Amino acid sequence: MTSAQVLEAQATYLSTSAHPAALTLIEGDDPRDLRAISLAYLTGSGQPRSYARAYYFAMLAEAAGDIAAPTLRAEIENRFSARGPEAAEMWVTTAAVVEAQALNDWVSSDLPAVYRQ
Fold first, then answer.
1. Nearest CA among 10, 79, 90, 5 for reference residue 44
2. What is the pTM of this model?
3. Residue 8 and residue 91 in contact, taking contact as beta carbons nearer than 8 Å
4. SS3 breakdown of the chain: % helix, strand, coil, rounded to 5?
């Protein structure tokens, strides 16, 4: 499978299964929990593997102040940049959509109030 096909299959699974919406997985006020969710999606351990969801939660963890989240975010980005220009370009497009959703959810759910430093 190509990287684009993998991302499409992951998105299809999340949208057609009874998998909960991303925001419903957020509990508590510890940014490390967001990173743990990201890792679960990245590895497929405890959550279905989804690079887009892993990136989403890494973005939220970074915004919430988790000091390890930038490294995790970079790992996800590098996964695609190392697969050639076509995969890198496809990831830039995917990442832009995920970043916009993370920003929207961060603001609309008032997550800054939850993750005050």
1. 10
2. 0.94
3. no
4. 75, 0, 25
